[in-house]
Design brief:
This protein is an alpha/beta fold. The chain has a single domain, classed as Glutaconate Coenzyme A-transferase. The protein is 23% helix and 20% strand. The strands form 3 sheets. The protein has a 9-stranded mixed beta sheet, sandwiched between helices. A 3-stranded mixed beta sheet has the order 7-6-11, with no helix packed on it. A hairpin with a 5-residue loop joins strand 8 and strand 9. The longest helix is centred in the N-terminal third of the chain and has 12 residues. The relative contact order is 0.17.
């Protein structure tokens, strides 16, 4: 019997996200250009959440009892993502789109308090050093949803900063409480180095580090002091069964294989 190929970073992301979804998460929204999040939603829909409504672009997926999941493509607006159980204009499902139970998002910058920047990096002279995709619906969703997950494919001091240049989604728990935001805020942050959450004061901390990652390596790649436990837990690796379902039934074209 041949050995199971180790999980790629995107495969690990997909499995960790699917694992952490809660029983009450019934409307799951996937952000643009996040094939690992789409795979996570599909994986949950085929296993732990068979009655979930998965919103991807204009498609509404419900995989309970389905023979197979629609393929995972690299980009949300690939025309092939219009393979769905039903299709409708976003305006007809606006409440679901604006207030999903849970959603996944990435960012250009993430700071110590969990604030996310998707607008861009100003050049200090009224222009931009870098323009991002913007924050369409993100401020509304991040305010109201039960909780959301931040996936950062890069982990370096340019993207993990002490304070973001602009706030697209307010993650700071203290500010959210002051403003009486009704939603649950960030649940987890994922990076190629580990899994992160926030301490009671609202500062980011290490929840677990992936196998082979050294705490000093993570701190050196982060633009602010991280709360790192003395005995750092290791991220629980994907099981053979999780990888089998992901590869054979969800990501059948190997988009996440890397």
């Amino acid at each position: 019997m041949s050995a199971v190929r180790p999980a790629s970073t995107d495969e690990l992301f997909a499995i960790l996200l699917a694992r952490d979804l809660r029983p009450e998460d019934r409307t799951i929204m996937v952000g643009a250009n996040m094939p690992m999040a789409r795979a996570a939603a599909m994986l949950a829909g085929m296993t732990t959440h068979p009655d979930a409504r998965i919103l991807i672009g204009l498609g509404v997926q419900s995989l309970g009892g389905a023979d197979e999941a629609p393929p995972v493509h690299p980009f949300l607006f690939d025309p092939r993502t219009l393979e769905a159980e039903s299709l409708m204009y976003q305006s007809r499902v606006f409440d679901d789109m604006s207030r999903p139970d849970v959603f996944f998002v990435g960012g250009l910058q993430l700071d110590q308090r969990g604030n996310l920047n998707l607008f861009g990096i100003p050049d200090g002279e009224g222009g931009w050093k870098m323009r991002g995709p913007g924050g369409l619906a993100l401020s509304t969703m991040s305010t109201h949803c039960r909780g959301y997950y931040v996936v950062m494919p890069r982990h370096d001091a340019r993207t993990w900063v002490s304070r973001v240049s602009l706030i697209t989604a307010l993650g700071d728990a203290t500010e959210r409480e002051r403003l009486r935001f009704p939603g649950g805020g960030i649940r987890l942050v994922l990076s190629p180095y580990g899994v992160f959450d926030f301490d009671p004061a609202g500062d980011m901390r290490v929840r677990s580090l992936h196998e082979g990652v050294d705490p000093d390596e993570v701190q050196a790649a982060t633009g602010f002091p991280l709360n790192i436990p003395a005995d750092v837990p290791r991220t629980v690796a994907p099981s053979e069964e999780e990888l089998r379902i992901l590869r054979e039934q969800v990501d059948v074209h190997g988009t996440l294989a890397g």
